[in-house]
Amino acid sequence: MLGKKSKGFTLLELVITMVIVAILAAIALPNYSNYVYRTRRADGKNMLEKVAAAQERVYTNFNAYASTVTGAPTGNPPAGLGFVTATSTDGHYIVTVGGVGATNQTYTLTATPVTGDVQAADACGALTLDNTGKKSWTGANPPTNGPCW
Fold it and tell me: Which one of 24, 47, 95, 99 has the fewest beta carbons within 10 angstroms of its own beta carbon?
């Protein structure tokens, strides 16, 4: 007579399955984290480009760049760019205007990851864009999780 056929899994089969799942998770998790950083970085880049376009519109009207992101573009040189908030659309970056010269003929925009946000751990750090179109970042060079720009 044949032996009784067991149902279920042996302990060895379960351990092997758990080891395989752990190896796959160890490979997938860092790649997923890098993907999240890159997709959230697009939020900061998009906001920088919106603010840069607004700076160029203000320059066309006033022959000077604005010194802040928020506030009305009134006066000469203009005070602000008219944005309600300096936070990016998805809330991962805050954009500031710096490098405005004495005659408001230059600017440097900086998108800094929000403190406490997951994006703050991004290897690229803060993203910058100036009036000449130069794009840079403050983090690792070269970045470890994809191109910053």
Answer: 24
